[in-house]
């Protein structure tokens, strides 16, 4: 992964006569086929630069010649080139406490296969993951030797420098299985772990409601609570991978709020996690299914209104704290239950946030859906692999 | 497809940066350092000499450029910047050369009845005169001010408790001085100082917590100020705080609510002192570890450490910066013992990674930060979309 020198450090001669293979690859990926001249025009570089890069990609096996289909006026048509998407593959996985979903994509970005397996805490995690990956590769007709990278999204804090778990509160016993055993079982394929909410935020920023917004925060509320933070278009992990572990932030709890299992102190976790919202739903007489309760409350008159306002106040604490530290252009709300509150709840959260501070806040529900973590994992694997292809 | 940057601007900036980093260089060394060809590098040096930005420095008898090669350096007096810190009690002004040498620094008290844009104009001219800097070569002024500064409308203070009249006239000040004058939040500027000159040297992500007559945060991410989309990044003072001791409440919807700001500003801390039997005049002394004669000092100290921990937990858990730096009179009076207590309090919230330090800067960190921001902007502006022969007045 060589970081290209920033453009302001390139001198004029370099700008014109150097075409980095990564940019050429992107152009070929976005077009069915290209001539060398078209590639030069699309990238504003010289023809020599384009021809050099095409040769380099051909040698790697990433590009092939397309058969001639006709002639141009005055002579044979220029040779056309196209991406060979199956020359390598990546694997993405969404690893949760009770199930794992694995998907395989080719380097062109096309999904080739996807499998979900459920498991119990007593299962051998690494073996199960390897079996699922092998099944999925088989379905995709992709040999393991051609897999360049595996990215696994999972709850917990992953140190961005070492790639090891710094903290895994949902499944501490998995730490070793995930980081050591699975790497051994998959041989030389690079295996990367990434916080699940970070991956979901990347998917939302690329394909969801966050498209084109450089600074956004994805607030994920489920069994745990976390933020995925995108600053200047890039995922912000923090020095130790702790960026976004917002559940730990102390927060005042109004009298009468019951503490739920998890973090012991009054905190954002205690206000907004699934168990907290379920407990609030129960308190207001809507049962203990948070999602169903949020749906039912919208047409339940005053009682429903009281419950929705209670939830809005809780979520407003999370949103305000975030906005008063980062002031992003958009806060995306997602996870396992919040959508069920609909526009009604979104409006109440907006008003409750306005009562805390004048910071401008724009709210939206996540769009990508249940597969955000898996899609983020595949995308991260594709991005890193594409960058790495041309590193040497 | 974005436009290709003008080759001249890129090359001139590369030569400027090489000379800024190394001081004196021969043409050969400039070419080597920038990656430009010797011919191109020489051409750019000639143009920069014509524009008065670069000057001939010395002849060295030995060098890679052969015997008696000439060396070149930036001409520090080619352009100047001014940084202003508009504190509530005093105004600090500093003038620096484009190469970053601070030539004049002054501080004066805020005038009764408020300050006007005219007074700022006068103070800036006095500082320039003290630095022997002609006003025609003033390229940029940055004014550090309390409040929220909207980055999409530079100079527009969108939310502030400081109602002095100069803020409305900031654009007229720019007209009178003949160069851009922009405002920036004071704590963000102090964070910039801490990053370049203080405890944050060498890091990329830093959070500065300012605990003085008020409380605020300034954050730097990836080496750049984190302003947020509307300048609100760091205004954590508005959050409700889970404090146990007495607070001066913020009136909100008819009820008093404790906020981070009301728990840690001067009023909040004085009220807390009173509660523990510490007189207003003794609060800072009670915070200081060397002072043990004040009754109630221990409990006051512990409660303040708790409140600081509550206030800095959000930026730590949201940004996880390389370092958190505490500054302001309350934090500095507390010193290392306060730092230790704050860290112990934070450990109660979870196994968070903690890298917290005390500021290594003095009171004028805001003015220094204003100079740093003005320098960055002025250097960007030197070669902005200009050809070799325009943009800067010939000297």
Walk me through the structure.
The complex is a heterodimer of chains A (392) and B (395). Chain A is of the alpha/beta class. Helices cover 41% and strands 20% of the residues of chain A. Chain A has 13 helices and 17 strands. Chain A has a five-stranded mixed beta sheet with strand order 8-7-6-9-12, with helices on both faces. In chain A, strand 10 (157-158) and strand 11 (165-167) form a beta hairpin. The longest helix of chain A has 26 residues, at 301-326. With 395 residues, chain B is of the alpha/beta class. In chain B, 38% of the residues lie in helices and 22% in strands. Chain B is elongated. The chains are: A alpha/beta (392), B alpha/beta (395). Chains A and B meet through helix 1, strand 14 and helix 11 of A and helix 1, strand 12 and helix 10 of B.
Give the secondary structure arrangement, pairings included.
The complex is a heterodimer of chains A (392) and B (395).
Chain A: H1 12-17, H2 21-30, E1 34-35, H3 36-43, H4 47-60, E2 63-66, E3 71-72, E4 75-76, E5 80-83, E6 89-95, E7 99-106, E8 111-118, H5 125-140, E9 147-154, E10 157-158, E11 165-167, H6 174-185, E12 191-195, H7 196-207, E13 216-221, E14 225-231, E15 234-235, H8 268-272, H9 274-283, H10 290-297, H11 301-326, E16 330-335, H12 342-356, E17 363-365, H13 372-389
Parallel strand pairs in A: 6-9, 9-12, 13-16, 16-17
Antiparallel strand pairs in A: 1-5, 2-5, 3-4, 6-7, 7-8, 10-11, 13-14, 14-15
Helix pairs in contact in A: 3-4, 5-6, 7-13, 9-10, 11-12
Chain B: H1 7-22, E1 25-26, H2 27-34, H3 38-50, E2 54-60, E3 69-74, E4 80-86, E5 90-97, E6 102-109, H4 117-130, E7 138-145, E8 148-149, E9 157-159, H5 170-177, E10 181-185, H6 186-197, E11 206-211, E12 215-221, E13 224-225, E14 250-252, E15 255-257, H7 260-264, H8 266-275, H9 283-287, H10 297-319, E16 323-327, H11 329-347, E17 356-358, H12 365-382
